[in-house]
Every structure is written in structure tokens, then in C-alpha cells.
Write a structure and sequence with these properties.
With 170 residues, the protein is an alpha+beta fold. Helix content is 56%, strand content 14%.
């Protein structure tokens, strides 16, 4: 029973870490399934605009730096490790900011998923292939979806925060 003098408990980081872990688990399970069932570049048409395909990305988003000899693997592992530390610090500092923390946790799960791929395979496993006619969007994975969702929600969070801080106009 809560008394009048008992402060409310401080929000905890664990729900956010649990969400990051769920994103990570779904990412790794889907990638393992693709690795077991598809050879490189095998694909299965699903709709007139979507395939499941096995692709390997040694670069970053949109295959940025993919053809640069291998050093980029360690650069992206370092960036992912640094992001993990920074995000965990922010989650500990602001656990009560729900949208902000959900966004960060989504990015965290995705970043760790792609770092694990780079460490285990030397590349990131991508498998979601959307296209229009003969133009294909770069293949991506669940980790990329978590990172993209998190980035979009961070922008939304900042827009909402700046709106709240503006004085009301008469």
C-alpha cells in the first residue's frame, strides 16, 4: 500500500531493454531461417512488388562502402558498439520518456542485430526485397526496420517536444 510520503518508483530501463531484445531476437531468428533455407541471391516471389531474397551487405545502409576491401566491417562494428553504449546511457537517464525510449530501444535492437551479423559472417544478411517494375529498393532486414522505425520516432519525439515548449499564441 502506498502512503502519502512514499515517492512513486522511478521508471526502470528494463522494459526498454526487453523491447530491444525482442527486436534483436526476431531479427536473428529471421536471418538464421534465411541462411538455412536460401542460397545467396535465391529468391521467392511473394507479391507483384515483394520478394524474399538472400542478400549479403558488407556495407552500411544502401550498401554504402560495400566494396571497400573489408575495413568497413570494423568501422561499422565500432559505430554499433558506440551506439549501444550511448543508447543504453540515454535509456538509463530518461527511462520515463516513453516515445523517446521506445525509439532508442528499437534502434538498439537493430544495431546489435546488424553488429552480430558483421561479427559472425562479415556481412549483414538482408532478405526483404521490395520493387516497382524493374527498380528494386535495396534489400533490408528486421534490424533495419527497427533502426528506421526508431529514427522516425526520434524525429516525431523531437517535433512533439518542440511544440510543447513553444508558448501558446493568443
Amino acid at each position: 500500500m502506498k502512503t502519502m510520503n512514499t515517492p512513486s518508483p522511478r521508471p526502470r530501463i528494463w522494459p526498454w531493454l526487453a523491447w530491444a531484445l525482442l527486436v534483436l531476437a526476431i531479427d536473428q531468428l529471421t536471418k538464421q531461417w534465411i541462411l538455412r533455407h536460401y542460397a545467396l541471391w535465391d529468391s521467392t516471389p511473394v507479391t507483384g512488388f515483394f520478394n524474399i531474397v538472400r542478400a549479403h551487405n558488407t556495407g552500411a545502409a544502401f550498401s554504402f562502402l560495400a566494396d571497400h576491401g573489408g575495413w568497413q566491417r570494423w568501422l561499422f562494428v565500432g559505430i554499433g558498439a558506440g551506439a549501444t553504449v550511448l543508447i543504453t546511457w540515454q535509456l538509463r537517464k530518461y527511462p520515463g520518456q516513453k516515445l523517446f525510449c521506445f525509439a532508442l530501444a528499437s534502434i538498439l535492437g537493430g544495431a546489435i542485430g546488424n553488429v552480430l551479423d558483421r561479427l559472425m559472417h562479415g556481412y549483414v544478411v538482408d532478405f526483404l526485397d521490395f520493387y516497382w517494375g524493374s527498380r528494386h529498393f535495396p534489400a533490408f532486414n528486421v534490424a533495419d526496420m527497427g533502426i528506421t522505425l526508431g529514427a522516425a520516432l526520434l524525429i516525431l519525439d523531437e517535433l512533439l517536444r518542440s511544440r510543447r515548449s513553444q508558448p501558446a499564441t493568443p
